Amino acid sequence: MENLDLSSMKLxxxxxxxxxxxxxxxxxxxxxxxxxxxxxxxxxxxLIATYPKAGTxxxxxxxxxxxxGNDALECETSLPIYMRVPFLESCFQGSPTGTEMADxxxxxxxxxxxxxxxxxxxxxxxxxxSRVVYVARNAKDNAVSYFHFDRMNMVQPEPGDWNKFLxxxxxxxxxxxPWYDHVSGWWEKKQTYSNLLYMFYEDMVEDTGREVERLCxxxxxxxxxxxxxxxxxxxxxxTMKQNQITNHSTIPFMDFKISPFMRKGKVGxxxxxxxxxxxxxxxxxxxxxxxxxTVMFRTEI
Length: 301
Ligand code: PPS
Description:
The chain is an alpha/beta fold. Helix content is 41%, strand content 9%.
């Protein structure tokens, strides 16, 4: 696969959101919808599904190293993670679409990223019984991370100030829709679809090695203790922040002067953002929205 020349990507004004099948979306994720909907999954595909900012890049890189380790560790010659793991629904001018990139992936298995809520995932993934790894992150930290991402990413809607963004998050009007429905929808899916591993960002921060092991056993991978230790070391926040494969520093529409892609990587950073009043409002809405699901989160570890 050739290296992607993102400098040719045409930059446009920040997009508006609109309702798409009941979900707030921008055209970047709906322009190629017919191809997304009809995407042909394969039985050995691994779909990495997340709400935005829940740890997609982290788990993508872990899986990349587990399956294609030696290649990926040779940083000099390796492609960035967003090419190694295509973003299925993405459609940015001047760049191949996510479906084209996935169709052209030479690897087996193919690692494919999506932020789609479960009801919008192309049906061939279910028909092929492809494996899915879902990563969820507590709503408060997820919101904070998403706010900083929207500030620095010029192909995301303008977030306004923190309070404006938070109100939008509470209403579920961010790109890819309500966090609540996303995490609980995928949690429900897990009850009937056994090829789905549901992971938590907080668990990964608490004990990355344990979660790497969990991934291996769920995917039936027999890796040695040494290999797992090497991978665990290679996917620490500071290492990934320095690594050009994972730090997204080559993407022209991200302004790292505003905020880096690899920002803090912590559980509990929400405490530096929420006022007491915002926290109370958040907890109240949360209780309502999450009353019918059993999925539980930790906002500190
Ligand atoms: S995206 O744009 O949706 O694909 O973003 P995503 O990769 O899902 O999430 C980005 C956040 O994950 C943090 N991250 C990590 N945290 C801890 N350890 C490691 N290794 C790691 N890699 C990525 C990243 O810093 C973003 O979170 P915040 O809170 O903004 O720092």
